Structure formats: structure tokens, C-alpha cells
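hiii, so i know i said id send this last week but things got crazy w the move. better late than never?? heres the sequnce for the chain we talked about at the cafe, plus the structure i predicted for it. fair warning i was half asleep when i ran it
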Amino acid sequence: MIARRIALVLALLLPALAPAASAPPDAANTSRIAAARDKVLPVVVSILVVGEGFQQGEPALSLSSGSGTVVSAQGHIATNAHVTEDGRSFRVIFGDGRELPAKLVGTDTLTDLAVLQVLPPKPEVFAYAEFADKLDLQAGDTVLAMGAPWGLSNSMSAGIVNNPRRLLVSLFDDESDYEDSLGDDEPTGRFYAWIQHDAAIAPGNSGGPLVDLNGRIVGVNTRGMIVGGDLAFAIPAPDAAAVVRELIRDGKVTRVSLGFRLRSLKGTGFDKGVLVSAIERGTAPEKAGLLVGDRILAINGDVVDAPLPVDVPGLQERIAELPVGSKVKLSVDRDGKTLAIELIAKALPYDPGKEREVAAFGLSGMRVSPDIARRRNLAAGSGVLVTGVRPGGPAAKARPEISPGDIITQISGTPIARPIDIAPALAKQPEAVVLAVETGGEQRLTVLHPEYADEARSPLPELPKSWSGVAVQPFTASLAHDAGLPGPGFRISRLYPGSPLAAAGARIGDLLVALDGEPLKPANDVTSAGFDQRVRDIPADSHASFDAIRAGQPIKLKVRLSAAPVDAGGLGTLADTRLRAQLRELGFYDRVAAHLPEDAQGVFIEGVETGGAAGLAHLRRGDVVTSFAGRPVTTPKELTAALAAVLATPSARPIPLQVIRGSQTRILYLERYWLLADSKESP
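okay and structure toks below
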């Protein structure tokens, strides 16, 4: 992904799976490649995702991209689940440049597949591509990878199938650990073997189609290798098609679990069945008498065999597709004896949870579902799992402090199950709360002082500090000697506009050696703090006398010091949640840095979230906004008022912003849908 994440699965460093060398397609295939390209590439799309993630307990918007394929006349788009992960809004860009909003229809993280649907302004029938209904690829077949690498426009690469049924278990791995390596919360590849090919893909290709020379989608590109050659992996079309159909129909995929894991017979000495490699403790299989090491010979009378690891995903898929609540009869071999064990197919629990911010606590967290409690082996069956903590925030300063992985179960004696349950407990804004926290299996109490901060910050007034209007470079005695200067002191390196010393005749290069008769001796040659403090110790609007040396000659500079300009820390700021930007008043030093006139007005951009409205409009930190929608703006409040006024008037036109950036004045445009798009999920 670009910015926070370009939509791709992390590169796999599997040295044992070296890619086969491929050659350019021969002339006989050229026309077939062109026909397949013309059939599918026009319906391959780029997907722009505005996602909300969390960093150290605080939400942050980001921009990412992936690929997808239109697979229905109604505008459904098949892509990867990791492309849509944490998405708040989606835009789809077609090969002809047309851009349309889209909604999320459903995701299935267990197969890393998702479906979006395009939202055209008026009803439309879309051209689409079709999945192959069976996997009939062979090693050496030519395939085409299509998508939008690195967030660029659509492209295509050609290669060959290296292996049509690849399990990502190297010769050095223990097959039993395969599922654990897939990820605790979002494993993929559990129900299929991958198509390994060497058509070049890059970050951003995720979710794009793998196409054969008949113009069929034979796979969905999901994993790539950044180092070690063009090694790519795609979800087989029959598996992807079944999941996509169910997502379109129901918005989710329903599966069952029998509470045990399987492994192949490789290395066991057996030649029939599939081995039970692990059983969840305390579950129905254990109570029914199933043991680790049993061999399952048949399921509901159908013979099962898994001689090799690559045969296991298909069996797991067969089990997952059993009807929920149905009776499942297992024929089991144990020490040469055949046993019959009956189980009930239970729905596979899967709830990855939704991370939320708890701003008053300075943390982010998610609901502890039964599935999360089981996967993470947690003692607490409910509560809020802390996923991130803001440095210096209330959680970090709690006594004892709260850390990621802790589970908050109560607030001042009231049980909580979800992050949104915390808000009612803070309705009266208590100064302190007592939290019941599970950490490392222990039940502890911790005292936390919530923060109820406003978005706007108006700095407290300060007494004026004296200012000489110069920047200086410190020269110790040794440095002055080496530089050929007459002695230690502070050399004037800049004269600010309105500088009192400049008004007294000071010049750049003058060496200031004394103030009111007291020598100016730097403590080091790094900081001018000693000089600044000496000036601040004199009351504002007072007279002072500097001894200086210019061109080897001593001079005196009699100065009336003025009040220092306000620095950035003393200026008003505003965090605008619609723009997702930090706004600040334009200060004296901002004008100096940008070479602006002393009376220049505008709003300084102090921070921008990549995926927020301001970031999407290409605003940057350091920009100065001088007008918004044609209205001059001089303070953050004026800018937000102008924004509110614009949004109150229905229009499809983008909002123009005039900004100063470096030596240029620029025009930028803010799309309204960036401000309004918010596909929030239920807690």
C-alpha cells in the first residue's frame, strides 16, 4: 500500500520455494494474450481506501490503494480483505479514468477476500469478468497478472504457473505449525492451496485478477515476494468465487468448526485417512472421546485422505461447509481399531473486534469477544482489551500504569464489555476513576485521572519578555581563536524585522561581547540560550547598552528593548476533526521563515493526517491557507466557520483553497465527499 499500507500481504521469505525461470510468451500466444487482455483489463479497477488505524492509542487516517475486478453487472468488485481493512470510505477508479464511490458489501478475513459495490449516480449495468469454475491449471501455463501496482493506473504482466497447488510450508517447517503461522486473528490460506506463479506483481496489485489465455479469472493475487525473484501467490478461482458469491448474497461467510485440527499422513507411516493433530481443550471432540493421534478415515460415510500437506486445506474446507447444527459422524482408526464418534457441527466463532479510541483515557481498545478470549488464551471472558496507549496520557500515568494487552473489566465497580460502555461512566467527568484490570492473569486495581480536553487550545497570557530582535551564534574563546575573531561573544547571524538592535545600527557580523557592562561569554558553541536569558532578564521597554566589535573596532549600541513576538507555543491551535488537520494562528516567526510581509494573514497548517480530507486535498505541514472557498481566513476559527458555511450549502463542486507554500501561492481543491464519507461500523 501507499502511505500507511499499500494493499498487499507482506513479502514471504521462503528460500526453499525458489521460482522457476520463465520466458517471454512466444508468438503463438501473442494474439491469445491480447484477447484475454481486452476481455478482462477494462473491468480491472484501482481501489482508493481511506482507512482508520491506531497508533499508540490514537486514531489516525491514512490513504492506501489496491486492485479489484468487476464481477457482476450490478458493479460488485472482488478484492482482498486486507485491501479494505479498516476502511472508512472507498473510491473505485476504472481503467478509463472514471472515479466512483463504493460501499463495502462484506469481508472474509479467513480467506482474505472482500466485495465492494460501486455506487453510480444513476442505475448502470457494468461490464464484468467471470471466474473459472474449476482449477485446471498446470505448471507452465501462461497467466496474466492485472492490477494497479504502487497505486498507479492499470497494468499487466505475463508469466507462467510454477505450481497450481502450493502450500506455504517449506521443507524446513513443521506442518503442524502451519495454521499458527497464518496469524492469530486473521489467518488466510486455511481452506485452499495457493496458485504459485511468476507474473510480476508489486504492492498495490493485491486483489487484482490472475487471468488465463481464455480470459477467465483463475485466481485473485494476494501475496507477493519483494526479494528473491518474481514469486507470487493467488487464491484459486473456484474458492474465491464461492466466497464472493456468499458475500454478495449474505454479506458474510458462515462456516462450522468441529474443534480439532488436521495434518497430513506425511512422515507418519500411515497410508489412509487424515491425522488429528490438535484438539481444543474442554471442547465437544475431547468430551466425545476423540484423541490427538487418531486417524479419521471417513466423514459422514465419505472416505477422506490427506497423504500430503497440500491435501489438508481441501478437507478443512469440506468440514467448514457442513450445515450448522448437523450431526457429523467420524469413522476413526485408533491403534488398528475402528471407532465411531459423533459430533455436532457448530458455527465457527469469528469476531476480530473493532478497535476504538477512548480519548479520556488516552488509549485504544476493543471488545473481548469469546473468540478473542479463546484465541489469546485470556482468563477474562469480557471487557475491553487495551490495544494501544498514548505516551504521557492518562493510561500511561495511571497508578499502576495501563499497558497494551491489559483488559479493563470494571470502571468504579461498573462492569464494562465494550469501549463505548466507558462513556456513560464518565458522563459527570469525575476527577479520578478506579479500574479493575486483568494483566498477566492477575486482577488488579488502578487509579486513572481522565482528561477532558477541548479541541481548541487558547494559550494562557504571559508577561511580555524582552527581545533584541537578533539571532546569534555563540563563539567560545577557543572557537573565536580558531575562527580569527577578537574574543568570545555572540555573533549576530540574523536581524529580524522590527529588530531593536537593527534600529540601533547593528549589522550582521557584529560580535556582541557585553551587555550593560557585563561580559557575554557563551557556555558552549552550540546554544545561544545564555544570551537570550540575559536579554529576557531586562524588563521589556527598558534601555540597554551592548558592547560590540565590528571589523576589529569596538562600538556601542544603545537599544530600547521591545516585547518579544509570540512563538508557536503561545499561539492558538485547533484540531479540526472534519479536515483531520491541526490548525494554528500564523505567527511572527512563520512569516519570517516564509519571507512574508509583517501584515500577512492566514492559517498555518501544523499537522495533516494522510487519509483525512486535508491530506487528500494535498495540504502539507507548513502550508499557510489564505482563503477558503473564496473567503479570506486569518484564524483557525474563521477557517472552520468557512468550512461549516460551505457544507451547509448543497453543491457537487469541489472547494477551492488558496495556500502559500514556499515561494509560491497555490490553488488546491477539497472534495466534499472526503469530508462526509464515514462508513462507521457498529461497536
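btw The chain has a mean pLDDT of 86. thought thatd interest u
miss u guys!!
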